[in-house]
TrEMBL record:
Belongs to the PPR family. PCMP-H subfamily. Keywords: Mitochondrion, Repeat, Transit peptide. GO terms for biological process: RNA modification. Residues 566-658 form the DYW domain. It is found in: Mitochondrion. PPR repeats lie at residues 150-184, 251-285, 352-386, 387-421. One of its GO terms (cellular component) is mitochondrion. The lineage of its organism: Eukaryota, Viridiplantae, Streptophyta, Embryophyta, Tracheophyta. One of its GO terms (molecular function) is zinc ion binding. This is Pentatricopeptide repeat-containing protein At3g24000, mitochondrial. It comes from the Eukaryota.
């Protein structure tokens, strides 16, 4: 049974045309009886020019005639079919559905030669076809040339701009539409609110919200969901929640909009709680729901909640397609479970370039240079063609693993794939050269860059100078950073540390004074650990935690044990206390050490401990954690701003190259 078809009844006055279209008509009709019925008319037609009835199936609308033209238009041009407005409409809808812009333009040209060219409905379909095929110039031209427009005409063009990065044009059109007296509908408001969210313009969004109220659409679930999404995209989560709570009828879209908003703000705990309330309320999470929650968990490294949501998805029976699998993979990777990330990657139904890039990023974040290179080479053999993100992942991994020759090879390989390096690639190469100790070569590379180096490039060189204690070049790199980004505290701290390490305390003090006078504040270091779905945060010398005494006692016991097997505090990492004993005391209560002691007190023996830190881990804490992993016989996974460190049995996955 045909679900959708075009029925035609035509009178053919030329027998030769009628005979010639029979072979062509065979391409249209899927049943032999239809063709036989047509062929049986041939004899009588030659005598009485009879009639026939044919059926064109929806799937055959864009079939080609032997001369390459669209078959339907060929039949019209040869007098075998009378055109009508609905036929053009059907053809244009099929071009829209299949994103066939070339054929759509052919139908458009044919339509303009017809007597229906001023009909509103087919012109509206033309606007939509051009917009869906990402040709907004074509859509605008059709709109401007229409002698008569209706509300659908305006909405189609507004929607087109909204969906094709033309948010400002969409908002201007909306104002014109209202000015000309057209009443917007729910689809108009949905698109205008999407445009407001894309501009991150809360002020504009509030004005559109007022229009929604004025026209009586505030409680419409479609418009209400769009309002929630708009406020969420503008970062106005309180207002998004107010609109959400006022909705008398909620659906999956409104829930998704609210959850996604919190995910974008890295408010993982709130997103997970909302997901729980959503499912208890009987709403079925979609792929978009799961993707948002995974992203939220990834942002805070919340492994256990992420696993719980993953189990929920498995029970729901949703297929692990690339779209959701990529965010799930990222969640496991950013939560410190690289093995689970690989399992997700291997189980993906179909891997796209984002899937491969996500896996490469995961390996790079965990400092697994060898695995990153192997994955990259596997992608080149069996996967999609690498893009600029792929190469950035490979270069980052080479930098973290000290694979200088391999990294430079991949940088040159980008030319083979006709990929122009952007500033991020150049930053990574400077980092690669700098970490390898080739500071002069890194400086030469910067000076020969075909694009202007930004602050990030000089920061990479400055970090390398701190690592290799090159005072002269470090001062020069810092000066370049200060010119481009004078309010970032990081480079000031690095320069101060370089001076202090070289014994130039007065110069270090000058840098600190410059920071104070310029109102530049160092970000306070903090670490956090997740125990039984609760996140516990610590700062250095923390005295606020209810278990502070037990935590300090635990770390003191660990300190005694690791000193017995060779740990010696490196007080060069405490630059502002001249007394040796005071320096050691300051080292012992860094935030990550307190987090580790707390985890040892409150987690099952033998289980991995996952700690996150908001700045780079200091060298002495890194050494202490290596020894601690051996004496407590636990794997300790530390995620800082640069990468993951996996401490196990006295060693770290970074190989002390970080």
């Amino acid at each position: 049974m045909m679900t959708k078809a075009i029925h035609m009844k035509q009178y053919v006055t030329n027998p030769s045309i009628f005979n010639s279209i029979i072979p062509i008509a065979r391409q249209f009709f899927s049943t032999s009886s239809a063709v036989s019925a047509l062929e049986s008319e041939t004899g009588p037609v030659q005598k009485r020019f009879g009639s026939f009835i044919g059926v064109i199936q929806d799937k055959d609308l864009l079939k080609k005639a032997p001369n390459g033209e669209l078959l339907v238009l060929y039949l019209i041009d040869n007098g075998a079919m009378d055109p009508d407005a609905s036929l053009y409409n059907q053809l244009l809808k099929k071009c829209t559905e299949w994103k066939r812009l070339k054929e759509g333009k052919v139908v458009h040209e044919h339509f303009l030669r017809s007597r229906f060219r001023n009909y509103v409905v087919p012109n509206n379909t033309l606007i939509n076809m051009y917009a869906k095929c990402e040709s907004m110039d074509g859509a605008r031209k059709v709109f401007d040339e229409m002698p008569e427009r209706d509300m659908v005409s305006w909405t189609a063009l507004i929607t087109g701009y909204s969906q094709n990065e033309g948010a400002e044009e969409a908002l201007v059109l909306f104002c014109e539409m209202v000015k000309f007296g057209f009443m917007p509908n729910q689809f108009t408001f949905g698109s205008v609110l999407k445009a407001s969210g894309a501009l991150d313009s809360g002020g504009t969004g509030r004005q559109v919200h007022g229009a929604c109220v004025k026209f009586g659409y505030e409680e419409n679930v479609y418009v209400g969901s769009a309002l929630v999404d708009m406020y969420a995209r503008c970062g106005l989560m309180d207002e998004a929640k107010i609109v959400f709570d006022k909705l008398s009828c909620k659906n999956e879209v409104s829930w998704n909009a609210l959850i996604a908003g919190h995910a974008r703000k890295s408010e993982g705990e709130i997103a997970v709680k909302l997901f729980s309330v959503m499912t208890r309320g009987g709403f079925q999470p979609t792929h978009f729901t799961f993707s948002s929650v995974y992203a939220a968990c990834a942002s805070i490294g919340a492994l256990e909640p992420g696993k719980w949501v993953h189990v929920h998805m498995i029970k729901s029976g949703l297929e692990l397609i690339a779209f959701i699998g990529n965010t799930l993979l990222d969640m496991y990777a950013k939560s410190g479970s690289i093995d689970d990330a690989r399992k997700v990657f291997d189980r993906l139904v179909q891997k796209d370039v984002v899937s491969w890039n996500s896996m490469l990023t995961a390996y790079a974040q965990h400092g697994l240079g060898k695995e990153t290179v192997e994955c990259f080479e596997e992608m080149r053999r069996i996967g999609p063609e690498p893009n600029e993100v792929t190469f950035l992942c490979a270069l980052t991994a080479c930098s973290h693993a000290g694979l200088l020759d391999k990294g430079m090879h991949y940088f040159e390989l980008m030319k083979k794939f006709k990929i122009e390096p952007n500033i991020s690639h150049y930053v990574t190469i400077v980092d690669l050269l700098g970490r390898s100790g080739q500071l002069d070569r890194a400086e030469k590379f910067i000076n020969e860059m075909p694009i202007q180096p930004n602050a990030a490039v000089w920061k990479a060189l400055l970090g390398a100078c701190r690592m290799h204690k090159n005072l002269e070049l470090g001062v020069y790199a810092a000066e370049c950073v200060f010119e481009l980004d004078p309010y970032d505290s990081g480079p000031h701290i690095l320069l101060s540390n370089i001076y202090a390490s070289a014994g130039r305390r007065s110069d270090a003090a000058k840098v600190r004074k410059m920071m104070n006078e310029g109102g530049i504040k160092k970000e306070p270091a903090c670490s956090w650990v997740e125990i039984e779905n609760a996140v516990h945060m610590f700062v250095a010398n923390d005295v606020a935690h209810p278990q502070r005494e037990e935590i300090r006692n635990m770390w003191e016991k660990i300190t005694d044990k690791i000193k017995e097997i060779g740990y010696v505090p490196d007080t060069s990492h405490v630059l502002w206390f001249t007394d040796q004993q005071e320096r050691e005391e300051r080292l012992q209560y860094h935030s990550e050490r307190l987090a580790l002691a707390f985890a040892l007190l409150n987690s099952p023996p033998g289980s991995p401990i996952r700690i996150k830190k908001n700045i780079r881990v200091c060298g002495d804490c890194h050494t202490a954690f290596k020894f601690a992993s051996k004496v407590v016989n636990r794997e300790i996974i530390l995620r800082d701003t640069n990468r993951f460190h996996h401490f196990h049995n006295g060693s770290c996955s970074c190989g002390d190259y970080w």
